[in-house]
Every structure is written in structure tokens, then in C-alpha cells.
Predict the structure.
Amino acid sequence: MSEAAEPSGAFVSHGTVATGMLGPEGVVATLAPTGFLPKKGKGIGITFWICAGWVLFMILLALLASVLPLKAPNFQDYSSVNIGPSARHLLGTDDLGRDLLARVIFGSRVSLVIGFAPVLIGLVIGGMAGLLAGYRSGPADTVLNAVSFVLLAFPALLAIMVIETFWKPVTLLKLTIMFAFVSAPLLFRVIRATTLSFSSREFVVAARATGAKTSRLLLRELLPNVLPAAVSFALIGVAIAIVLEGSLAYLGLSIGLPTSSLGNIINDGVNSNNLSLNPYIALWPSLYIFLLLTALNLMADRLRSYFDLREVSL
Amino acid sequence: MLRFIATRLVQLVVICFLISVFAFLLVHLLPGDPTLAILGPNDTPAARAVLLHQLGLNKGLLSQYGTWIINILHGNLGASFLTKQTVSNALGVAVPIDLELVIVSQVLALLVAIPMALVAALRPNRIFDRVATTSTFAMLSLPTFVAGPLLVLVFAVTLKWVPATGFNRLSQGFGPNLKSVILPSVALAIGSITVYYRLLRADLIATLQEDFVTMARSKGLSTRYILMRHVMRPSSFSLLAGAGISIGTLFTGAFVVEVLFQLPGIGFQLVNAIYGRDYLVVQGMALVAAVAFVVVNFGVDFLLTVLDPRVRRA
Amino acid sequence: MADSADRYDRRAFLARGATTAAALGLAGVGLPTLLSSCSSTTNNKATPRLSAPGIGTGKPKRGGTITVGLNSEIDGFLPSTNHFDNSGLTYANSVYDTLTMIAADGSAKPYLATSVTPNPDLTVWTITLRPGVTFHDGSPLNADVVLANIQSLQASALTGQALKGVVSTMVKVSDMSVAITCSEPIVAFPHYLATQVGYVVGMAQLESQSSTKPIGTGPFSLVEWVPNDHMTVQRNPHYWRAGLPYLDGVTYRPIAEDQSRENSLKSGTIDLMVTRDPNAIRDLQHDSGYQVVRNPSVGQNDMDFVILNTSVDPTNDLVVRQALAHAIDVDQLVKLFGAGIAKPNLSLFAPGSPYRTADNGYPKYDLAKAKALVAQAAPNHGGSIKISLATITDPRLLNEIQAIASMWELAGITTTISEVEQVTFIDNLVTGHFQAYTDEMFAATDPDLNYVWMSPTTANPPIALNFSRNKDDALEAALQQGRTSSDPAVRIKAYQEVDKRLSADLPYLWASQATWSLMGSNSVENFNNLTLPDGSAALGFASGTFDPTPAWRKD
């Protein structure tokens, strides 16, 4: 399928970065390799590993937050209000005297969970469904396809806002579920499309001809080939989820007090007088998100370049 | 071809129908008594009677849905119970604003992205290309809720070049109108620039490697001439694809931008309606917003598949 | 810093004088302060003001329009059914007139009425109307209209409750006068006629009950209202006050977010703004590019406080309320959120008010005492005290409850905080579904106007206007005395007693006076110089309510 598609999909094959929701069928989102291919034979490139390491580091910090020698994120020290970075407070304090380093790290827990959990759920559920559907087309495939089509057509932010209107109060669990609903169909389609493109290839046909069981086929032959595209997309999905949570927080519709996510902290930092009085409140979480998004985007990008992922018509 | 159009139209209608069902069920999914929830402190026997008549809550669910749909088709999308303003009136204010935001922001994005992509494609992997690609990458990682307040702080508050909030109608003069729209459009354009740039650049690079280009070069035509005359047109489809992808980010970004700059577009009105528990308005507005999103997506997708002979029609 | 100096031209630099020096002096503090101080000094109209802010010098100029930024949007123009918060009153002031108006000294003087006179025992008030006044639709002001207005207020669920204890019957005495009988002698009755109750709405609007098309006798008439966007009014050419208003029209823009509104003023998008954000006052009060009008010291100002529901557990326990009061370090709270402008005020009344005693007995900050009281009360409430504290979606208030919650936690009170939307917030106050909320109210030109919000008589379900639902007989006695005695000395003693009773019973945990202010750029003149028909000064801006009648444009 990909061979036949090469000349026809000139622009489609060098798709685009999916920074938003995908359009329904036809146009697609694979992510455009930047063209900075790693030198021949050199593996996926040092950039990928640096980024991966950075993301892992952020995750580790978040996981170990309670064990690290951080100040309590909610402790209000009224004698140290709005202090800039100093010895006692490495990143400074906010307008209630709370240590910003602690707030960012504890806040990142929420943001990382919202970023990764729904996508992981989506990968597992959507991914498994996609593998099966792509390999064995049938009535189940048609139904799932239609369902995902409908779910994808609806704008995510709108759906979440509207659901939140009556599903109060907003908690981490509820947001995770809603985000998972949004990411699962996406991943389903990506994996299904990629699986479809592989399932007619010679090595699969050969495997089937030698009498391999379906599960073995799926796991041994298809999955490793589908994984790069899936992971690449999933990384973008994480980026989208994090931005979505931030946008919701800006609209005041993210997780309620007193939980802070990075989005909530930024919202706090750019509202009322804080931006001009103490820009650090907004600066550190924004920087964190910026670095995290950059790392994720770069990783996705390198994956695509390395595996030379091409057109995937959804 | 006709079959293709027909299938697409059917899909469109089905999705719109599902959206309408979802929007309709909204009010009925409210916990507790919906009239109580909607009326709030205005709960008087007279008000209740009016609302019951409006919602038709005493009839069966199916007949209520039918009445609602018929009302909508006649242009009656409901009204705010508080301010009595009809959703159609509110839309009359909102739609021109959203249209202008979309047009201006996309024009800005294209004005930046196209020249950048052209230069980068002419000299791939050189300094300009690397700088441009890196900076657009950075733009990808800068969410609207961070970029927006920063832009306001610099351009509206400090430099006073443009107003910090509010929308000036075209009737008040072209100058004031543009001034009130430029900053929000810049905030929105940031997300789209990357999409257009990467798509166009990749496409241009690929097309430049094609045979007919090599032939034109061998005939002695300058690369610049070739770019303009022979390459831009086929590559412009990638811009259309980019527009399709941008719609997703635009949607999310517009909500944030409208709230930040207090522009009474659909996003702003919807957020206010959700805060004010104005469920009927939420219902009507969400329906319109979702249908608009779907229709535009379908439209772009349709144009792409119809206009570009290279894309397979799956 | 040289960078920002380049932005001023030479003239501005010289004219700025002290302001520039101050701005430059702040440079060492760092970028943020630099930005905020520079932003306010690039205004070129730099000559220092010779007169008080909001008071115009020179001849009034006719014509032009101004744009005013308000802090909230209203839900309609009908006094009997819509919520008239400070924005509602401001909108109403443009299109309606009240029967009486408050003078600069705090007394109520006739406005749309020519006289409001009581009988000897203050139970029947005769209101004589001004002749020759017409509504925007041409219909005349007469006794029938006024009666219809008050009847519609009585008939409404919302205002009927508030009016029940004030007005009992009314009769038409003549074509241009009515007599209102109050349920008891109410000394401050004329003051009521200057509030929401006193707006006179045209007969046609009363009949249609329209909340979107106001018909009044006011200085301006409605052009268009697009909710959440703007409201435009234009001059009423037949206004009964000759020569007024000066402006051709006014546009109001509701901008809910304080910082956004301030930014709009600074960037010139709006000419005038109403705000209660102390940060804005701190930013602009010394800037000669803006005129900052603070709340007047006449009468009572809005108070910022935490309201406790005395009818639910555990806030129904006086010991618990005392613990909550002792646990809040009000000085610290005000220091954190008052921007150096707000001051702690542990009383219903402002400093300088005759109704305030030297010591009203309000509990002072004492953490040890709070802990002891918590320990004492806990066994009666299942072993621990749990409170939920909420506020509306306002960034400053959300931060404030986090601070208060932390202070309560230190005393051993388990506090959960949450955010509630405005509409639900009001609902919950009215129906009693809350434990502790932050609130802001009690602005009044006469203390009796707050009777309905504090009296035990309005503390009963289902809709209680005394949100705290406290039933204190001594409080009621004092309120009654203040209401019915015409002897000022007796009234003073009575309201001092009210303050003492509130400090003892603790339905409200005081923090500070609300820092309302009206700020205009130098393009608007005379916006705080409201006068009565006889030329004497009226009380202009107060507690967030503004009247555009006397304003004119500078340019």
C-alpha cells in the first residue's frame, strides 16, 4: 500500500505536525520529518536520547516528589512573599510565600498524569483495537471505524467543556477519563491505518502462509512495525493533552482547588497582578511546559525521521 | 465522483445528527431538577411556567427533541433565561468576530510561513533552514495561554500600540477594527505558522527533487523562477491541508484568546454561559460551534480530495 | 533603565518631575516593576492636576462620548426582577432616576420627588412628585406610575421579601403625590428611595415586564445592549434637569477580570473604570495621567468578610465561630492582599463612623486561644472540626481563601476550599447551602438599609435574606431601636450595640473595607461632581456605583 501511494501522496506523505485535532478521513496527520536525518548508520541520534532522558528525568522528579528534600508546596510563609530566586528558595516564592520549586514539581505530577495516563490508556485500548481491526477487517472493524470517526469529528475542548458543565466538581480522575475518550479514537485510527499498510506486505503474507497463529503474527510481526508510528503519535498526544489542560485551566475549568496543576499555576501567574509583580510564578511552569513539549515534539520527530514513517491515510 | 460526494454528505449528516442528540441530552443530563438548576434565584411560579413551556419538559423525550430540532431549523436556537437575549442574536455578534479572527490570523501565519518555507526549501539544511525550523519548533511548544498574556503585557500595556481588550466593529472604522484584532490574531497565528511552514517546506523540497524540475533546471531556468511558476501551485495543496489541521488548534486557541482579550466570539459567549449556568445558551451555542467545526473540516477535506489528483480516494 | 527613558519625549520628562524620579528610582527592583511603572507614565497629558480627581475645572464641554469599564454584567433592567449589584445600579443610574438622592453629607434629599415628608410618628410618608417630567417614551411622571412601581416591587419574589418589612400600604393622594404607610416608624425611609427601590420605571415597561428595554426619566436612554459586550446610551434631550447631561452618550463595557480592566484603562480602550482591586489603586493613584477617586467616607462602605452559616453544623456553635475568628491573622491577610491600600477593619462600621466604639469586643488574632477553643468544641462535633470555605471565581479571592484555610489549619480546623460560580454562589447564600463563604456587602448610606440583611425576622427558610441566619434577640432590639428612633443620640447608641452584638455572635468574620475606586484617564472631566437640582453637592461615586450625569470630555 505504501509503495503504490508514494507518488500520489507527495504532500500527504510529508504530512504535518498534528498540533490539533485531525480532520476526518483523507487528510492526515503523520508528522513531518524535519529532514534533519541523522547521519547514516548512526542510530536515532543523540537528540532523541537527550530528550528522552529529559522527559524521564521530569517523570522521575514527579514520582519522587514526596521523598525529595523539597519544601512543602502548600506551606505559606508570610515572611517570604514574592521573593525572587535565592538560597532558601531556589526558584523564589509566590504571592502567598509558597516555594515555587516545590509547587512546580508537585504541580507537574498532575500535569504529567493528565498528559501520559490518558494517552497510555488510549494506546492500550485504541492500540489493541486498531491492531485487530487493521489486521482483520470485518463488521467489528466497520463499527469501530465509524465510532472513532464520530468521536474524532467533535472538537475536543468543546466536548470537555460541555461535559464539565454538569459533571462537577472537576477531578483528576474525571479529566483523565475525558482525555482518554479523546485520545483513544485517535490512536485507534493511527494504529489501524499503519497495521493495514503493513498487513498486505510480503513478510506478513509469508508468516500467515507458514501457518503462524494470529496472536503471534500480531505480536511478533505487526506490532514492532506499528510501534514507531504509534509511539510517535502518542508523544504528540501527550503534548496536546498537556496544552489542553493548560487551556482548560486558563478558562478556569481545570481541576478545582486546592490541587494545582501546572496549568493552574500559570493561570494564577498571569492573572490579577502577578504577571507584573512577580513574573516568576508564571515563568517557571511555562518554562517547564515549554521544555517538556519541545522534548516530546523532538522525540516524535526523530522517531519519524529514523523509521522513515510515511503516509498513513487515516 | 458522485458516489464519493454522496458518501461524504451522508457522513456529514449523520455526524450532525449525533451532535444534535448530544447537545439535546445536555440539559436532561443535569443532576436534579433542570428547571431549578436553570432558574436559580429567579425561581418563581411564573418563571417556572415560562421555562416549562419553553423546554416542554412535560412531554416525552422524543417529542421534546423533535420540537427542539424543528425550532432550530426555524432559526430559534433558544435564549438566555437571564438576559433574554436569543442565541441567534448572540451568534450575530459572535460569528463576524470569529471569522475575522480566523482570516486575519491565517493570513498572518501564511505571510510569515510561506517566505520562510521558500527560503528554507531553496537552501535546505543551511543556517536559515536550521534557525527557521528550530524557531517554528519553539512556537509549537508555546501554548496560547502563555503567549497571549505576554503579548498583552508588551504590546498593549507597555507600548500601548493596541487595546488590551475589546472588539471594535468594522462600522467604527477599519483602523480601530484592525487594531483590536491584530494582537489576538498574532496569538492565534503562532500555532499555525509551524504547521504551514513544515508542510510547505517538506512539500517544496520533495517537489524540487522531481524530474520535471531537474528538466526545467537543465533548460536554464533559475530555481527562483521554477519555484514560482511550477512548484508553488502543486505545493499549495499542502497549505490547504495545513488549514485543515490548523482548524483544530484554532478552535482551542480561540477560546483562550477570546477570554483573554474579551472578544465576544462563540468561545467567550460559551464560557460565560457555562459560568452562568445558562444551560439553554450552552446547548444552542455548543451545537452551532460543533456543527461549524465539522462542516469546515469536511469542507477542507472534500476540497483536498477533489482538487488534488494525486490523492487516492479511499 | 535608559531604554525606558528614551520612550518619553523631553517635554514629558520635564513635566513629570517627581513621578519620573519615582519611576526611575524603582528601576533597581527589577524588570516587573519596571514594566508596571513605565506603562503608566507614557501618557503625554502630563500637567499635574490642579483640582481634585473627578472634579472638573473650567467650562463644561458639551458633546462626545466616553467608555466606562465595569466589573460585572447585569441580567436586566427591571428593578423588581433583576439583580442590582453595583453594575446594575450604575446602568440604572444612566436611564432611570430615583425618588431621592443622597447629598454629599449623607442625608437623603428629594430628587425625582420634590418633597418626602413624614407624619409626626414617622409611619406615613407623603411623596410629592416633580411636575413636568416625562419618560423616554413621552409618558408623564405621575402618582399612578409611582404606585405601580412600588406594587410591582412588592409582587416580585426577590424584592418583595426585602420590602415586606418596610412598606405595608400606599394610596394616591393626588395626581402628583402618594402616601406610603410603613409597617413601623422608619427614620431612614427617604434613604430607601435612593436605592433599587426608588427607581421609577415607565408604565409601559412595567406592563410588559421587559428587562431588556428600559423606559425611564433618566439623563440617557438606551441605544443598544449586547450582554457581555457593551451597553450604549445616548443623551435624553428632554431630561428634566436643564443643561444636563453634557455627554452625547456613554458606552459601558463589562470586563470581569480586574487586571484586564486595568490594562484596558492603561491602553486607552476605556476612559473610566470602576474597580475594587487594591492593586489598581496602588498602581495608578500617584500617576498624574489618571484621576483616582476613592470611596467617600460618608456613610457605610462595603465590607469584605467571611460569612458563616449559623444554622448548620459546626458553624452553629458559637465556640467554633470564636475559634475561627481568633485563628485569622487579619493584619497578615490584609498585608498579603491589600496591596498596601486596604486596611484591616474589625467592625461593621468604618473608622471615623459615629456608630463605631473604641472597643466593640471583636476577637483579636490569637492562635493559642483558637487552638484551645477548637479542642474545647471538637468533642461536640464528632471529634474534629471540619469546615468548607468557598468563594467565587476571582483570582484574588481564590488566593485569599487559600491563605485563610492555611490559617485555620494551623488552629487545628480541617478546612476544604472550593470555587463556586457567581450564580450558584448567590443561590447557596439565599437557600443556606453553605458553611463559610467570603462575601462583600453592607454598603449603605444609612445603617437601617442593612436591616433586612441582618435581622432575625428575615432568617427563615426557604429564602432567607439574612444569609447567616443568626437569630439574636439583642441584635434585633438594637436594630429596631436604630430604625425607629428619630433622636440621633439614641440611634448612635443603638448601632454601637449592633456592632457589639455582631462581634459577640460572630455571624461575620471581618477583614477590611472594600477598596472600591473610580478611575479615569485625563480625557474625562468632572465625573465625580454629581449635584442635586439646587446645585449642592451630591454623593457621587460610592461602593462601586457611578452616575455619568455630570461628566464631560476634556478633548
